[in-house]
Amino acid sequence: MASIADGAPASSILSREAIIAGPGYNRWLVVPAALCIHLCIGMAYGFSVFWLPMSHLVTQPAADCAGMGFFGMLTTTQCNWSVPAETHVFETFIAILGISAAIWGGWLEHAGPRKAGFIAALCWGGGMALGGLGVMWHQLWLFYLGTGVIGGVGQGLGYITPVSTLIKWFPDRRGMATGFAIMGYGGGAMIGAPLAVWLMKTFSGDGVQGVWQSMVILGIIYFIVMSIGAFSFRVAPTGWRPEGWTEADAAKSKAMITKRHVHLERVAKTPQFWLIWLVLCLNVTAGIGVISMASPMLQDVFGTHLLHGGGAGMTPEAQKAAIVAAAAGLVGLISLFNSLGRLFWASLSDRIGRKTTYYCFFILGMILYILLPTWGHMGIASMFVLSICIILTMYGGGFSTVPAYLADIFGTQMVGAIHGRLITAWSAAGIIGPVLIASVRQYQLDHGVPKTLVYDRTLYIMAGLLLLGLICNALVKPVHDKHFMDDEELAQERALQKDPGGAHASTAARGQFGALGVVFWLAVGIPFLIGVWIAIAKGAALF
């Protein structure tokens, strides 16, 4: 086994064979490495803090700016960008996330998490910094290229990089392990968004907030933190098992767990892959639709009911500002429950099985979506907010549970690559969900439906989507034997990973954690807890 300590050449430092763990390695050190990456790319959910400041960068716009279209804004330096023109970058990097994960998932399995994680750091950190330069030079096309396209590749590689590694280190706790990492993606905005706001205020001047400085600094920070995570990865040797655990233990559980492996090139020929693709897509479509409209939904449905005493004695302008501030508290709670739900549900799936966990998502989700209009009609804002928070735990839980679901059904050998293909369901849902809820809302407003009632039909549609997801989940069965790799194919695939195994391959002893491990966990845990505190403080405004 090559390693830096053994004097391997520099060209092998990023290779997979250089990071195969030796005896005594503690698998719990892999988790904070994964969190380093996911807490950084999770800033994707916090990009909304940039939209309004970016739309006021030109203090004296030209006279002919009114009515300028999107393509004109791509190159203008004399006119401010519209918020809709800016927000398409979110759709861009979510779409590129799915595409890049699908394209390079197979390569990642052979290249290893260090190389993939480092490239993700270059793309997300570097892309964000390049996007910041686009803001500085007021070139919207460069913002899209840096943050949307290059950053989207970093999102895709960074998202799937830890999955295969964690699942192979935690065959006994697949859900919990991936839940920890993917929890970081849900919580990244809780850290990144307040930091971005602080940086923009710090570098503001002449009535313009420091958007480009904030993006460049964040890009540098993210590159460094993600690189630390990437270089901290170690992969489990072939045949490694945790102490006291055997594959027979997995067979006794309620989950459908196979001991064999399906090749990436064969997985799309199985009905199970497409059923799970639909399961994820439908769950995410319903959840992301609520995320995209949560704040205006709360304002439209409850209005002055959000204010103490109904806002009596306040001017209309003061009432509007107070309502917006209260609704902003919901956004903070959404981030919190989206993040914590990823760990809770994924860990629970280790006990009750992945299929049962998704049954919970769909059945409980349908009940809550149907109840939301009722809470609105009755004016019970607290139950409305609580229902949305529970829905968001299941939205996040769907992301964190699906890698373990895939490992159970298709085996662990190529689960990272298979997960990469499946993430295209997220890209599709990221477009369908917001468009569906926004278009139905606008249609009803155009036809005279009161604002307090415009979401009823949409929420019932979301419940219907979850019913379809429930049916798809029920149809998931074990994979037919013909789709699994035989022993020769599996040996060839493992040879491509250049894992020589060795005497320590089956070592089950628990490695030393040490002071370095404590420091590593604190380094990722403290910022996350600060983000949790900020989210709770914002959410307190609702009560």
Describe the secondary structure blueprint for this structure.
Blueprint: H1 30-41, H2 48-54, H3 70-73, H4 83-111, H5 113-136, H6 140-169, H7 174-202, H8 211-232, H9 247-251, H10 264-267, H11 271-302, H12 316-352, H13 354-378, H14 381-410, H15 415-422, H16 424-446, H17 456-474, H18 487-496, H19 514-539
Helix pairs in contact: 1-6, 1-7, 1-8, 1-19, 4-6, 4-15, 4-16, 5-6, 5-8, 6-7, 6-15, 7-8, 7-12, 7-14, 7-19, 11-12, 11-13, 11-14, 11-16, 11-17, 12-13, 12-14, 12-19, 13-14, 13-17, 14-15
In short:
This protein is mainly α and 543 residues long.
How would you explain this protein's 3D organization?
- With 543 residues, this protein is an all-alpha fold.
- The chain has 2 domains: 12-58 and 82-241 and 508-538, Up-down Bundle (Growth Hormone, Chain: A), CATH 1.20.1250.20; 269-311 and 326-479, Up-down Bundle (Growth Hormone, Chain: A).
- It contains 19 helices and no strands.
Number of structural domains: 2
Kindly state the percentage of residues in helix: 55-70%
Instruction: Give me the count of strands.
Output: 0
> What's the order of the H and E elements?
HHHHHHHHHHHHHHHHHHH
For the sheet with most strands, the description reads: none
Number of helices: 19
Mean pLDDT: 85
CATH class of the largest domain: Mainly Alpha
Keywords:
about 550 residues; mainly alpha; Growth Hormone, Chain: A; 2 domains
